[in-house]
Amino acid sequence: MSGTPALPAAEVLFGRMADAVYLLEPLTSRIVWANRAGWTMLGLSPEEVLDHSVLSLQKDVVGAPQWGDIAAVIRTQSPYVFVGRHRHRDGHEVPVEVVTTCFLLGEQEYFLSVARDVTRRLAIEHALHEREQQLWFALNEAADGLWDWDLSDDSVFFSPQLQRMLGYGPEEMRPLLGTWTGNLHPEDAPRVQRLLREHLDGRRVRYEAEYRLRNRNGHYLWVHDHGRVSDRDGAGKPTRMVGMLQDITDRKMVQLSLESLAASDGLTGLPNRRHGEDFLAAQLDRCRRQGGSLGLCLVDLDHFKRINDLHGHLTGDEVLRWVARTFGRALRRSDLAFRWGGEEFVVICPEADLDQAWQVAQRVREALAMQPRENRLQVGPVTASIGVAVYPQHGQDALALFAAADAALYRAKVAGRDRCELARAEDAAAG
Ligand SMILES: Nc1nc2c(ncn2[C@@H]2O[C@H](COP(=O)(O)OP(=O)(O)OP(=O)(O)O)[C@@H](O)[C@H]2O)c(=O)[nH]1
């Protein structure tokens, strides 16, 4: 091809264009025309650019045979998109995306290439990629485990950290929703599933739950789990949900033991006075609403001071623990024994009438009296005096019942100890 084709309109049309435009001679790849952006991108003058070809300017096209191959593809796949690097006159490279079309002008075939400088785009892509890498690193290496649930097929990505948390090696944990649901603690599963469903249905802003999850060894970890729907389909139906799982076993254990400490007596492990009073109040409430009776036994160890004095306070403590264990043997499942304070205990017998409450008191007294043969404490007989009061005969509320039982207990002590006494009508009136 000789000379530049007469294209005056092209100068006007393409002169102000931001993208570089080159008209190429297909056989040699020589540039036969370029717009302003075309020659400035290469650091050349309008005349100098005509001395160049794709082979001299494109770093990624090496040699005529390769150009021949590319030209063949351009002819069949027009427009052809190519990402490469242009060589600037001063030596630096300009990353470009080139879109080339093939066309005929009269008898002559031409390639028209539009090259866009993609330096900025690549820099952004690179930065995004870096950020994504960092994000993944942070998510996977953080103490929390990550999960990513595809609702369309119930596949779940469990992050390496999540797998490690549950004791699984790489590739061991099946990436399915069933792996998670199958390891939920049966007592927690209904609540957790409900919370999840409520979030998916849009009734909860986010899903959050604390529950037990079985690890690879079959032990349960306590976990804190929270997540959100991240993608929805055109109809608004959730298609993807992501979340984080944290192992909170240590914290939960401390919390649970504090809770049980708060409700139980530190020395004997029996429910403490606060818990016992709450229980009594609830039972009395039930009696009032539904009718029925309830027995209350006030149990006071006899001459306990003597045990302390003779054998020491630590042995006294040991005796109190033994007494607590004895209740376990003497009581019905529905009865509750709790420590009232010092060497005093209370037994609540829900739904017991006078006779039944009396029998419970006798059983407790006898079980304690068995002690010399059973225990190894060598403190001699440990006996108790017990005052028994019954709702509704001896009192309508906890205060009145305690007063009546206390009066009966006093009589038991006076009468010689190691015995049970039933409250009397006048005890109720005195309360
Ligand atoms: N070892 C020990 N002793 C306790 C505890 N709480 C109270 N005591 C002791 O229990 C004793 C109760 O003494 P008292 O109230 O005189 O009653 P008692 O000696 O059992 O005489 P009675 O009137 O027959 O019951 C005191 O010596 C208290 O120090 C405890 O937690 N551990």
Quick recap of the structure?
This protein is of the alpha+beta class and 431 residues long. The chain has helices at 8-14, 36-41, 54-57, 64-76, 119-141, 160-165, 177-181, 189-200, 249-263, 273-290, 304-311, 313-330, 354-369, 371-374, 398-414, 425-430, and strands at 20-25, 30-34, 80-87, 93-105, 108-117, 145-150, 155-158, 207-214, 220-232, 238-247, 294-301, 336-341, 344-350, 384-391, 420-422. Helix 11 (304-311) packs across helix 12.
Task: Map the helices and strands.
Elements: H1 8-14, E1 20-25, E2 30-34, H2 36-41, H3 54-57, H4 64-76, E3 80-87, E4 93-105, E5 108-117, H5 119-141, E6 145-150, E7 155-158, H6 160-165, H7 177-181, H8 189-200, E8 207-214, E9 220-232, E10 238-247, H9 249-263, H10 273-290, E11 294-301, H11 304-311, H12 313-330, E12 336-341, E13 344-350, H13 354-369, H14 371-374, E14 384-391, H15 398-414, E15 420-422, H16 425-430
Parallel strand pairs: 14-15
Antiparallel strand pairs: 1-2, 1-5, 3-4, 4-5, 6-7, 6-10, 8-9, 9-10, 11-13, 11-14, 12-13
Protein name: Diguanylate cyclase
Domain GGDEF: 292-425
InterPro entries: Biofilm_reg_signaling (IPR052155), GGDEF_dom (IPR000160), Nucleotide_cyclase (IPR029787), PAC (IPR001610), PAS (IPR000014), PAS-assoc_C (IPR000700), PAS-like_dom_sf (IPR035965), PAS_fold_3 (IPR013655)
